[in-house]
Amino acid sequence: MAEVTSRFASHNQQSDFYSSETAPTTRSMHSSRLSSRRSSGAGSSTLQWLANLFHGRRSPNPFTEKEKQDPLLPKSRTSSPSRSLDVESQASTLLGVEREVSRSTKSRVDARVISDAIIGLSDGLTVPFALTAGLSTMGSTKVVIFAGLAELTAGAISMGLGGYLAAKSEEESYKATLSDTRTLVSRSPEETTDTIREVFEPYHLPPSLTEDLAFHLSNSPNVVQFLMHFQQNSPEQAASRAFTCALTIACGYFLGGFLPLIPYFLVGNDQVLFALYWSFAFMALSLFSFGYGKTCFVSGWTGPKNIWEGTKGGFQMMLIGGTAAVCAMSLVRLFDSLAA
After folding, report:
1. Where is it localised (predicted)?
2. Within-domain flag for 162
3. Which residues, 6+ apart, have CB-to-CB distance to 137 below 8 Å?
4. Which of 77, 103, 148, 217 is 20 to 30 A off residue 210, Cα-Cα?
C-alpha cells in the first residue's frame, strides 16, 4: 500500500512538472496567435484606410487610435511571411478597386465628352451668331444663309480636326510616359521604390508602413499602373478617344451655330431685319440657357446659391455673345461704308 501511494505521489509531481514547463509555452503560443491576428487586423484596416483615402471616401484613421492598436507593421520585412503576403495582396487590390471605380464612372458619364460638347457649343453659339448678325446688314437672307452654312461647315471641320489632333497628342504623351515608366521599373528598382515613397509622403503615414508598402508595391506586377495613376496622374486613354473628341466638338459647333440661322429660313428674302430681331431673341434665350446649364452642371442645380450662380453664368454668356454680335455688325457696316 505504501508503495502504491509513493508511485501515485511521484506521478503527480511529474504531471505538475510537465504542466509547469508547458504552460509558458502554451501561453506564448496563444499570445503569438493573438498578436498575429491583431497585426493582421491592423494591416487590413490600414490598407482599407489607404484605399478609401485614394478614392475620396472617409473612414476612421487607424493612426489616431494608437492606444487601441499594436504597432501596425514589424520592423523586419521578413519577420512574418504571412503578414507580408497579406500586405502585398491588399496593396495590389488598390489598383483593382481603382479600375472598378474607373469603369463605373465611365459607364455613368464621361467628363471628357461633356467638356468637348461645351467647347463646341460655346464657340458655335458665339462665332456664327456674330457672323450672321454682321451679314444681315447686307439686306439679303440668302447671303446670310449661304454664308452662315459655309462658315458652319468650315468651322465644324476645323474644330473637329483640332480636337482630333489634341486627343492624338494626349495619346502619344500617355504612350511616351508609359514607356518611360516601364523603363524606370525594369532598370532601376531602387529609384522605383523611392518614387513610391514620394507618392505616400503627402499622407503622413508611419515610416515603417511607407517602407513596407514601397517594398511590396515595387515588386508587384501592377507597379506600372500604380505609378501611372498616382505619380504621373495620367489615366489610360480610350482607343476611340480621338474620334469621339472630334465628332463631339464638330457636332456641338454645328448645332450651336445653326440656331441663329433658323429665323432666316422662315422669312422672305427682303425681311432680313425681321429675321435678325428674332435671331437676337432666339440666341439670347439659347445663350442664357447654355450659360445657366454649364454653370449649374458644375456647382449644382438646387439651392439659392446655385440658382444665383447659374443666373450669373447665363447673363455672362449673353454678354459675351451680344458683344461679339455687336462688334461684327459694326465692322461690317464700317467696311461697307469704306467700300462705298
Report:
1. Endomembrane system
2. yes
3. 329, 332, 333, 336
4. 103
Report the C-alpha gap between 178 and 169 in whole angstroms. 14
How far apart CA 201 and CA 198 sit, in angstroms, is 5
What is the average pLDDT across 197-214?
86
Measured between alpha carbons, how far is residue 295 from residues 24, 114, 245, 307 in Å? 70, 13, 21, 9
pLDDT grade for 24, boundaries at 50, 70 and 90:
very low
Instruction: With both helix axes pointing from N to C terminus, report the angle between 272-299 and 304-339 in degrees, rounded to the nearest 10.
Output: 150
111 within 8 A of 69, measured Cβ to Cβ: no
Which of 49, 98, 86, 96 minimizes the C-alpha distance to 204? Answer: 49
- The secondary structure of the chain in percent helix, strand, coil, rounded to multiples of 5, reads 85, 0, 15
Mapped onto helix, strand or coil, the DSSP state of residue 139 is coil
> Is 106 part of any domain?
no
What is the DSSP code (8-state) at residue 235?
Answer: P
Question: Looking at the domain assignment, is residue 17 inside a domain?
Answer: no
Question: Of 108, 110, 145, 154, which Cα lies nearest the Cα of 253?
Answer: 154
Please identify which residue in the block is written with the cell numbers 508611419: 206
Give the Cα separation of 331 and 134 in Å (integer): 8
- How many domains in the chain? 1
Cα separation, 95 vs 89, whole angstroms: 11
CA 69 to chain centroid? 34
Mean pLDDT within 113-140: 81
Q: Which domain holds residue 288?
A: 113-334
Each residue's pLDDT tens digit, 145-181: 998 899 899 999 999 999 999 889 888 888 888 888 8
pTM over 0.90: no
* Cell numbers given for 224: 506600372
For residues 262 and 257, give the distance between their C-alpha atoms in angstroms, rounded to a whole number: 10
